[in-house]
Design goal:
5 strands; 3-stranded parallel beta sheet; mainly alpha; two-stranded parallel sheet; binds tryptophanyl-5'AMP
């Protein structure tokens, strides 16, 4: 059994990219679960700015979005005194461990990653090595903090599986160095679909703005987008695969209103899609509008946020370096002379 890094409490790690406009999918699949689990675990919530540069970024824009995401973590209810909320680029151990783990990951494993295939199709003019080894950096993120649990949406499951494989491979050579992490998927909300094409995941890079609810959409926009959401001609609010649009809306409503699927079906039995969509919009707005006002309030607290950035980078570095030093010793790097 790997020794718990932080005595008493199990450890949780997760991260989000600061690129594009965050969507309701990011919130329901990830951020909401971060908040839910944050009392139970010793948590590390990272703004993964190093992952972001696998696609070309405007520097000023990346910096701004990274800060906004860090602020959003706190606005969503993560206490920055209890949880370690930080930028990946402020903790050099991420990149250092990623290099080591690159040497324990096979080309064939990375070639199978669907995200790599999708992103290289989308950015055919920039299929860089970082895009290819992206999942190794993600494995380093998780393993540095000996994470027991990693809350993610279902699109990240393949990366999680790879992380477990890399950790198991390393442990089988060097002993129990890494905790093997378990994914945490919410019961509903792990895969929120596009409002315009429910066979596709809701994605911040979707070209059609009506396909996604952005976390910063105002109430009118939210209501309008749900009103336009693609459904079907079956005229029944039932949860099944023949009605993917309705199914997605039920998922969203069920999570946002804390009702079971059966309760939602019963509530809208015999009612029309218009009424149903309005209720879905209201339930989403009732979460996003307060989130936005807290985000706006915190955004003006510059000194407070700066302090968190500084303190938490130090705290994250402390724990990350503990694991990194152990790994470096195991693989035979020369000892540091103090
Ligand atoms: P990213 O930034 O694309 O997404 C952040 C989180 O949001 C989830 N998500 C969704 N969940 C449900 N429905 C959707 N439509 C939807 N879209 C996105 C994602 O599954 C994710 O949990 N590689 C990761 C970031 C990362 C990471 C990590 C995550 C880097 N290192 C270590 C966990 C642990 C990514 O690009 O997520």
């Amino acid at each position: 059994m790997v020794k718990r890094m932080i005595d008493g409490k199990k450890s949780l790690f997760s991260g989000m990219q600061a690129t594009g406009n965050l969507t309701l999918g990011n919130y329901l699949g990830a951020l909401r679960n971060f908040v839910k689990l944050s009392d139970e675990y010793e948590c590390f919530f990272c703004v993964v700015d190093e992952h972001s540069i696998t696609v070309r970024q405007d520097p000023a824009e990346l910096r701004k979005r990274a800060r906004n995401l860090l602020t959003l973590y706190i606005a969503a209810g993560l206490d920055p005194k209890k949880n370690t909320i930080y930028y990946q680029s402020h903790v050099s151990a991420h990149a250092e461990l990623a290099w080591i783990l690159n040497c324990f990951t096979y080309m064939g494993e990375l070639q199978r990653m669907t995200q790599f295939k999708d992103k290289s199709a989308k950015h055919a003019d920039n299929i860089n090595a970082g895009l290819f080894t992206y999942p190794v950096l993600m494995a380093a993120d998780i393993l540095l903090f000996q994470a027991d649990v990693v809350p993610v949406g279902s699109d990240q499951m393949q990366h999680l599986e790879l992380t477990r494989d890399i950790a198991g491979r390393f442990n089988s050579i060097y002993g129990d160095v890494f905790t093997i992490p378990e994914p945490y998927l919410g019961k509903a909300g792990a895969r929120i679909m596009s409002l315009q094409d429910p066979s596709k995941k809701m994605s911040k890079s979707d070209e059609n703005p009506n396909a996604s609810i952005y976390l910063m959409d105002d109430k009118d926009t939210i209501m309008r987008k749900f009103k336009r959401a693609v459904t079907d001609s079956m005229a029944q609010v039932k949860y099944n695969d023949e009605q993917p649009g309705v199914k997605n809306l039920i998922d969203i409503y069920s999570v946002c209103s804390n009702k079971s699927v059966a309760e939602v079906e019963a509530e809208f039995d015999g009612k029309g899609y218009g009424e149903f969509k309005e209720a879905v919009g209201e339930s989403v707005a009732s979460i996003l509008v307060p989130l936005q006002s807290e985000f706006n309030r915190l955004s003006s607290e510059k000194a407070f946020i700066d302090e968190i950035i500084k303190e938490n980078a130090e705290k994250a570095s402390y724990y990350a370096n503990k694991t990194l030093r152990k790994v470096q010793k195991k693989i035979g790097y020369p000892e540091r002379i103090r």
